[in-house]
Design brief:
Structural class: mainly alpha
Largest sheet: 2 strands, antiparallel
Strand content: 5-15%
Strand order of the largest sheet: 1-3
Number of domains: 2
Shape: globular
Helix content: 55-70%
Number of strands: 6
Number of helices: 14
Order of helices and strands: EHHEHHHEHHHHHHHHEHEE
Length: 290
């Protein structure tokens, strides 16, 4: 049996739905009463830190192997990516297996989060409306055996919620240390729940926008598009120029038009100056004159 078998057998995952509901409830109904600009800034900074770590390490490193890096950089990046607390897409082993399925069957019935099944499905409800195979953790190892035998990634997958709890405790203690108990609660709310709410919509929007709206530079078998909207939020990269990415999945960045910038690539270039990152795989079609 594999992940894609029994794909028409939808399984309701209550824990994922509860997580999404709790994030919305706390971020919308409670957090505003503790608002400060400093707390909001903290939510935004952690959003960028964790979200970009998921994009760079879970996505481009662990899934597509588009660069090499030091082991401690890999571990730290994957830890931050796991702390996005983004439902089934936070644990790295699950992420990589599901994303490989997405690329193999993009915008078909076997795609775990295609907008062809509806806007709300692509944006959110695929978290708890999952094909039967995606609820069986033992099946993920067939798609990523090298990660399933790595104790670090097994630890992250098995302890995603506990790690988020530990992060929440750090937020509370940090806020308390620079203020009082109320300030600790404030930074807990904004560092965990408000940040997680931003993450859900800003990253999940990729599944919707980048497969429905935008332009295409390559004729791929799916509906992937390049989006200026996502580029404004995500600062370029495979998430923004998604059609380019689907056409050339192994490359960290694919530049098909002169305006397709990639801040993520610049960030890796900085890390490479310290010897922490190497062998970044890029394709610049503009310079090649294509």
């Amino acid at each position: 049996m594999t992940l894609v078998e029994n794909h028409n057998r939808q399984t309701f995952v209550l824990s994922n739905l509860i997580q999404v509901l709790v994030i919305h409830l706390v971020a919308i109904a409670i957090a505003p009463f503790y608002f400060t600009w400093g707390a909001l800034l903290f939510a935004v900074v952690t959003l960028f830190l964790f979200g970009y770590s998921m994009g760079i390490f879970h996505h481009m490193y662990l899934t597509h192997r588009s660069f090499k890096c030091a082991r401690w950089v890999e571990q730290l990046g994957s830890l931050f990516g796991t702390l996005t607390w983004r439902g089934p897409f936070a644990p790295p082993i699950q992420y990589v297996a599901m994303h490989k399925i997405h690329h193999a069957y993009s915008d078909t019935e076997l795609d775990p989060h295609t907008p062809t099944k509806g806007v709300f499905f692509a944006l959110m409800s695929w978290f708890w409306q999952m094909p039967y195979g995606f609820t069986r953790s033992e099946l993920y190892s067939k798609y990523v055996p090298e990660m399933a035998n790595d104790s670090w990634y097994v630890f992250l997958d098995r302890n995603t919620n506990l790690l988020q709890l530990a992060w929440g405790v750090l937020c509370f203690l940090g806020g308390w240390a620079f203020g009082d108990i109320e300030n600790g609660v404030r930074f807990l709310l904004y560092g965990v729940f408000v940040r997680a709410l931003f993450t859900l919509y800003l990253i999940n929007a990729v599944d919707l926008i980048n497969h429905t709206i935008g332009y295409r530079s390559y004729e791929t078998k799916d509906n992937s598009t390049n989006s200026f909207i996502m580029a404004a939020v995500h600062l370029g990269g495979a998430i923004s120029w998604h059609n380019n990415h689907h056409a050339h999945q192994h490359y960290f960045t694919v530049k098909a038009r002169w305006w397709e910038f990639d801040v993520h690539h610049r960030f890796l270039q900085v890390l490479s100056k310290f010897g922490w990152v190497s062998d970044i795989v890029i394709l610049d079609e503009v310079r090649r004159g294509r």
